Amino acid sequence: MSTVRNVELASAEIPTGFAAFRCNLRRWRVPLSILALCLLPWVLPSQALAVNVLIYGLVAVGYNLLFGYTGLLSFGHAAFFGAGAYTTGIAIGAFGANWFVAMIAGVAVAGLLSVVMGILAIRTRGIYFSMVTLALSQLVYYTALQASSWTGGENGLRGFTVSTLTFPGFSINFLDPLVKYYAIMVVVALALWFVSRVLNSPFGAVIEAIRENETRARACGYNVERTKLLSFVLSGLLCGLAGTLSAMHLSIVPLDSLHYHTSGLIVMMTLLGGAGSFFGPFVGALAFLSMEDVFSLWTSNWQLIVGVIFILFVLYLPKGIWGTLISWRANR
Amino acid sequence: MTVQLIAMQLFSGLALGAILIMVALGLSIIFGMLGIVNFAHGALFMVGAYAGLYVASLTGSFWLALVLAPVLVGVFGMLIERFLIRPLYGRSPDDPLLLTFGLGYVLVEAVRIVFGTDGIPFSTPAALRGVVDLGIGFFPLYRLFVVGVVLVVLLLLWWGLEKTKFGLIVRAGSADPLILRVLGVDIGRLWLIVFGIGVGVTALGGVLAAPMRNVSPEMGTLVLAEAFVVTVIGGMGSLAGAVIAGLLVGIAVSMTALFAPEMATIVMFALMALVLLVRPNGLYGRAAPGL
Fold first, then answer.
1. In Å, how far are A9, A208, A312, B96, B289 from B37, measured between CA atoms?
2. Residues of A with Cβ-Cβ distance to B249 under 8 angstroms
3. A259: which chain B residues are within 8 Å (Cβ-Cβ)?
4. Which residue ranges make up each domain of chain A?
5. Is A79 on the interface with B (CB under 8 A)?
């Protein structure tokens, strides 16, 4: 990401043209994202699609922290998404927990799981990492399948609903689709602000350094293993948060949310949008879910079309939609 | 719980391990040579099973399916290498991984369109039905046959790699492709053939496994995870590692099935976690490239 650093250096002097535009984009990325998300339910054909873009966009943002910025290709992030969703569902359904407590529990369990998985997976390097994360997430999947008295097994987790979000002093009707959208959006906006802060911090620079040249980062005295683990856990926490939102939104947790296919969806969305860019994951989630929305009207085999488009992107546009757009503008 | 029962279960583990060896071998051959992880491996295993089903239903012969299906799928694998993977050489090692992942996705969906979404039973050929008396109990003949076929394939591969000129070139290529190219070997063609062999071996695993499981578009997903577990335990790129780890996992799974059936799928992942803690590069592994 040397170009980004250069832009920052240039901005200390007098930024002009595209450099200035890009510098401003960087400064205003959180407000701009929130503005776009505010408009989303009015632009998209259905509110259900808009909520899905929010939730999967957040998953992709969390995943992008690990894949796009740290350079670690995980194929097991469904485990954190699912763990967050199941924990929230079980906390509300079986223990009658308050929605806020259930959310905290969901994020905490996803975080704990990512610590355990991270410690194991980070012992391996390169492509091993992808294989180990995939295998470990399938372990979580089969455990959930077997523990059917808690998780509902193949039928998924049912029997819990969140109808109102109660705060001290007031409450929000969570059944009204538009209110629900904006309630979820507030959580996503907070998460985006958090990610932006992380990326701007020295830690954000170190994870990019590890992606660019691990050996050199190590030689500079950074603790590469610990940094990778922290990045892994942060990304797991964000995916867990998205999972808890998904559980509260749908009032069911399908077993598939833990499956390898969900991990694959997360990878595809992130890559389609542009890994390693701030706006990319949301663009990817929007593009992927819109394609699903449109193609599934024509054919039940829409996954074939999406898969072919993904292959074409890997071959010809590996930077994704947003990444390609940015580098195209920069080269003009 | 008798000694006989345990011995029988050990034999079942052998048959399960034999299939795992085939899949992990295919993965390991491709990785050892081309340095890429084939995420479409599970899907190609499934395509192998369907190809077997198709040939068997056309010709009515299981034996023809056993020979023809892996060859057909192997050629298909060569086309994949030539037109999809070759453009990615020299790019990040993540790119072929992502591409083959997308390819697996497409293959599963394509098979759903052609053969339907439901599982199809694949009947055991008449000559291999029935059981054999092993002295300790009766064992299904077909499983014994699977172990035999895998043994033959292993011997063939060993002979091909260690005793032939082609094997010598392959081993040289996995040690140092650049030097091999300098010596005037067309390494592109070599990689094409090796990829085809790796895919063909997996497809043979698919045909062999078909009569023991239902043939369904999703059958590859678990196989992919299993193959990863076996290669991680055995060590990436090591053929001996794949064989030992395949047997280890097969026996561990079937022994667990005897004592705690609900833990059977889970135990192999636990085994992998254990190996990772003690030997991060696997039992026979060398350090992963790209360091």
1. 39, 24, 19, 7, 12
2. none
3. 221
4. 45-258
5. no
